[in-house]
Specification:
With 356 residues, this protein is mainly alpha-helical. The chain is built from 15 helices and no strands. The longest helix has 26 residues, at 271-296.
Length: 356
């Protein structure tokens, strides 16, 4: 009897094959400035090492030999790794059906082909974050050890690769604690609590360093790129972040700019930016809906709830550090295994009836 490929897996692999082709072609057609990070990594601009994102990425690509390959060949190797990771997380039964969840993932796969199939720090982040997802999917591991292990992995990743990842479990744990309190509109209140935590961290940092978090991160990056064409979608708060109220405004402005970027519609003549904005709006909305469902069934979906809290903690932290819309999308793709898991958390639950 002939083996029949399931529709969902057929569409998954068909989309992956198409995106794989795009990944290989992209280095041949896009302008050189698009490959600034990739060239920084492979050309030895930064000395390789174990600490630091550029340093570790440079070491990784030299050790694997991919630093000496054309970017198209790197894409030929790396992109299947990304797709295999998603496949092992699980292809949902309705992946062949055109709905909002699937549309978000379809577009995300295409974004992966463009942004992180080349030498990229986000490729390393993607693979690392996938380990956390596999921990959540391993039901033999009790919940609280899973929670602690995932938090430890994020802190460790922050120490050796991206420092702001250390803030994610701190904000996530605070948000998780507030979910146990009986409140109306708990989903919104949980977000507010997350903002309060990051504001407190920023003020504490300001007392020690003499400048708030957004000043020393997003502000510094964009100041260095002033009057250049490095980015046409920079995130600059209308209020200076050198006062306590300016920093609060800057944090909220950054969060909305990278997660609910309606202010980005001013780039009406940049269709790629408009596409990113629509993708981010849809992504945030559906994750928020699923977060609300998980809160209502917190005992049943405790792993999924914690995954969503980590995602939203990351979104809040992004609002502090992210310099522009392009970087925001690229960095979200770096944590996409966690997002993919949260989008389809009911796929392995036969008794869940909700769908979006």
């Amino acid at each position: 009897m002939a083996y029949l490929v399931k529709k969902n897996e057929f569409i998954f692999w068909l989309l992956c094959s198409f995106a794989w082709l795009i990944a290989v072609v992209v280095p041949l057609v896009l302008p050189a400035r698009f490959f600034f990070d990739a060239n920084t990594i492979v050309n030895g601009v930064v000395q390789e090492g174990l600490l630091g994102s550029y340093e570790f990425a440079t070491l990784f690509y030299k050790v694997t030999g991919m630093a000496y390959m054309p970017f198209s060949l790197v894409a030929l190797i790396q992109f299947p790794v990304l797709m295999y990771i998603l496949y092992k997380i699980g292809v949902p039964d309705d992946f062949h059906i055109f709905n909002i969840k699937n549309l978000i993932v379809y577009l995300a796969i295409l974004i992966m082909a463009v942004f992180i199939a080349m030498p990229s720090k986000e490729f390393i982040t993607f693979v690392y974050v996938a380990v956390i997802v596999y921990i959540f999917k391993n039901k033999k591991l009790p919940f609280y050890p899973s929670l602690l292990l995932s938090g430890f992995l994020l802190v460790f990743f922050g120490i050796f690769f991206r420092p702001y990842f250390m803030l994610i479990p701190i904000v996530g744990l605070g948000m998780y604690a507030i979910t146990f309190v009986k409140l109306k509109n708990k989903n919104v209140v949980t977000f507010v609590y997350g903002f309060l935590i990051i504001i407190f961290i920023s003020f504490s940092y300001g007392l020690i360093k003499g400048e708030f978090l957004t000043e020393g991160t997003r502000g510094m990056v964009n100041a260095n790129r002033a009057n250049t064409d490095a980015s046409n979608s920079v995130i600059i708060s209308p209020v200076e972040a050198d006062t306590w109220y300016g920093e609060i405004f800057s944090i909220f402005y950054g969060f909305f700019s990278v997660n609910l970027p309606v202010n980005g519609f001013k780039h009406i003549f940049s269709p790629q930016i408009i596409a990113f904005i629509i993708w981010q709006l849809l992504l945030f909305w559906i994750l928020f809906v699923r977060f609300t469902w998980a809160l209502k069934n917190r005992d049943k979906y405790k792993y999924e709830l914690w995954a969503l809290l980590l995602i939203f903690s990351y979104f809040i932290v992004q609002g502090v550090f992210e310099p522009d819309l392009g970087s925001a999308v690229k960095h979200k793709i770096g944590v996409f295994p966690l997002i993919y898991y949260a989008l389809y958390y009911e796929n392995s639950r036969s008794d869940v009836q909700e769908s979006v």
